[in-house]
Design a protein that fits this description.
Elements (H helix, E strand, L loop, with lengths): L19 E9 L5 H11 L3 E12 L4 E6 L2 H14 L4 E4 L5 H13 L6 E4 L16 H10 L2 E2 L3 H8 L6 H13 L5 E3 L10 E6 L3 E7 L10 H14 L4 H19 L5 H5 L1 H9 L15 E6 L6 H9 L19 E6 L2 H7 L6 E4 L6 H15 L5 E5 L2 H7 L3 E4 L3 H4 L2 H6 L3 E6 L2 H8 L5 E4 L16 H12 L4 E4 L7 H6 L4 E4 L1 H4 L4 H12 L3
Helix pairs in contact: 1-7, 2-3, 3-4, 5-6, 6-11, 7-8, 8-17
The chain binds ligand LCLJCK34, the ligand Cc1nc(C(=O)O)sc1CCOP(=O)(O)O and magnesium ion.
The ligand Cc1nc(C(=O)O)sc1CCOP(=O)(O)O binds next to α20.
């Protein structure tokens, strides 16, 4: 006989081993949207969801019959009881029924510190079946906007929040500026209802920059709860320690994957059975961490000029940051790159020459323009007629003029460099990235390789981002989808084995060679440890 499973007191807390996110919003009795959708999304992304109900909505996929709001004191009780037991790392707010609920939430959030949870407000105004869920006065909306970390309206909700018509790109940016002027720290507008756009283009605006996330127009527009899914997924990825740009990229990819595998291709079997095809179109499936490169949005970055006036900034924002025309940079000659030494002088290139290295980078950060020019010239001369692929860091104009094999540029560099000129001159291009959003920005440029950093803490360069670790590196390699990849940052003899196992095409090192007592022996040891020999 099988023993009965006993429920010990400890097992009550099983789920709290997962990070906790609170979902505040309405119960949709059909399960398509609201806090049910939030909880399913969060569970799918390895988060424990606590639910704070603001209202019960009686609705199906086609009709909204009635709603019953919680009184503010009942909402307050939910907050109190949960806060003791399962405090949140993030809070996702959906439909708030009235001013009392909104003011209670604002006050509660403002008093919560150490640590303060990240708060996403998806300002649900109405259901897709047409029922109004939220009636908030302007001053209360402003209070909430000043409290939350990000607000994620669609076009109609943006109009509701700002009282401004949104009918084209200019009025969209104007309304976003109004929201920011009211105190919103960051705004993410979903473009699904923007009939004037060719693709679905979502836009994220914060104090320092603007990002656009574009996807082809989707087929199954009738999938409900995608706004809830997106905002919950953003909260989940923030809690998993991704920066906001990466959390938005991943959330976008997540919803896209759910859409794609919720709506089966119009197979003969699905057409023959109208009922089952209708059901699959309505009930979103779970998906887990998004992995398919084709589900990820195209991301474009637009820095906000400190001196540009509002009008000029809007114009900048409308333009693509990179004016790079479509096409590919030349492919690398050797795509199995092995160890990639990054060095700061032509003397180092000469010194490493006996190693038969297949790729090197000249990264000179000091010296007069004349000295740098001379170093680049000599380095190019040294490797000429050999099969060593020499990349020049930063100095793309000199690299073109002096006939280098390739150029390596960072994220800021590609805002200003003339990428068309680099490609037209036949130079290879490698670009640094530090996460999902940057990779998606760079994939669209079809570079010769994508650098992925920094994997471990490094003393060679001050990095504004966090070390990525090998688990993320593996995901990045997968996302690069065949474009050669280079890992960089803090890689040494003891770490290189794990890095090599991720499938990267090459491993860039500075200090592991240049600080070594015997650089040539260090190079050889790295090659062997990585299994590149
Ligand atoms: C292979 C490789 N990866 C990343 C970098 C960093 O380039 P960048 O972001 O341009 O920063 P600087 O090197 O200029 O400080 C690199 N050089 N090589
Ligand atoms: C130059 C550079 N770029 C990085 C990036 O992540 O973009 S990390 C880095 C420094 C790499 O030096 P080391 O091998 O000594 O850690
Ligand atoms: Mg650079």
């Amino acid at each position: 006989m099988m023993a009965k499973a006993s429920i010990s007191p400890a097992s009550n807390n099983l789920n709290t081993a997962l990070p906790v996110v609170w979902c505040v919003g309405g119960v949709d009795c059909s399960g398509g949207a609201g806090v049910t959708r939030d909880a399913i999304t969060l569970a799918d992304l390895s988060i424990h969801a606590c639910v704070l109900t603001t209202q019960l909505t009686v609705q199906s996929n086609s009709i909204m019959l009635s709603k019953e709001s919680m009184c503010a004191s009942a909402l307050n009780q939910q907050w109190q009881v949960l806060f003791e037991d399962t405090p949140p790392r993030a809070i996702k707010i959906g439909a708030i029924a009235n001013d009392e609920q909104a003011l209670l939430l604002s006050a509660r959030i403002q008093k919560t510190s150490n640590p303060r949870p990240f708060v996403v407000w998806d300002p649900v105004l109405s259901t897709s079946s047409g029922g109004v869920l939220s009636e908030l006065s302007e001053s209360v909306v402003d209070e909430l906007l000043n409290t939350v970390d990000i607000v994620t309206p669609n076009i109609d909700e943006l109009t509701w929040l700002t009282h401004l018509p949104v009918v084209d790109e200019a009025s969209l940016l104007n309304a976003i500026n109004r929201l920011r002027g009211k105190g919103a720290k960051s705004v993410y507008v979903k473009g699904g209802h923007a009939h004037w756009q060719k693709n679905v283009s979502d836009i994220f605006v914060c104090a320092s920059h603007t990002l656009r996330f574009s996807q082809p127009k989707y087929a199954n527009g009738n999938l409900r709860g995608t706004g809830c899914m997106l905002a919950s997924a953003v909260a989940a990825f923030i809690v998993h320690d991704y920066c906001i740009e990466d959390a938005l990229t991943l959330a976008n990819a997540y919803v896209s994957e759910v859409r794609n595998h919720t709506l089966p291709k119009q197979s003969a079997a699905a057409n023959a059975n109208a009922i089952s095809s209708e059901l699959t179109a309505y009930f979103a499936r779970t998906n887990g961490f998004p992995t398919k490169p084709e589900s990820f949005p195209l991301v474009t970055f637009h820095q906000r000029g400190a001196t540009a006036n509002e009008k000029e900034r809007d114009k900048d924002t409308l333009l693509e940051a990179s004016s790079c025309k479509e096409g590919h940079f030349p492919a690398l000659t050797h795509t199995h790159l092995g160890i990639y030494p990054v060095v700061d002088s032509v003397q180092w290139i000469a010194r490493l020459w006996p190693t038969a290295v297949k790729i090197m980078q000249l990264r000179v950060k000091q010296g007069s323009q004349e000295d740098i020019r001379q170093q680049i010239k000599e380095a190019i001369e040294l490797v000429k007629h050999t099969d060593c692929q020499l990349f020049i860091n930063d100095y793309w104009e000199l690299a073109i003029e002096l006939g280098a094999y390739g150029v390596h540029l960072g994220q800021e560099d590609i805002d200003t460099a003339d990428l068309n000129a680099i490609r037209n001159a036949g130079l290879r291009l490698g670009i640094s990235t530090h996460g999902f959003a940057e990779i998606q920005r760079v994939r669209a440029l079809n570079p010769s390789y994508i650098a992925l950093g920094h994997i471990f803490p490094t003393n060679t360069k001050d990095m504004p981002s966090k070390p990525q670790g090998v688990a993320r590196l593996e995901k990045y390699v997968q996302l690069c989808d065949g474009i050669p990849t280079v890992a960089i940052g803090g890689i040494n003899l003891s770490r290189i084995g794990d890095v090599a196992k991720t499938g990267v095409s090459g491993i860039a090192v500075v200090s592991a060679i240049t600080q070594a007592e015997h650089p040539l022996k260090a190079y050889q040891a790295l090659v062997e440890e990585a299994g590149f020999a």
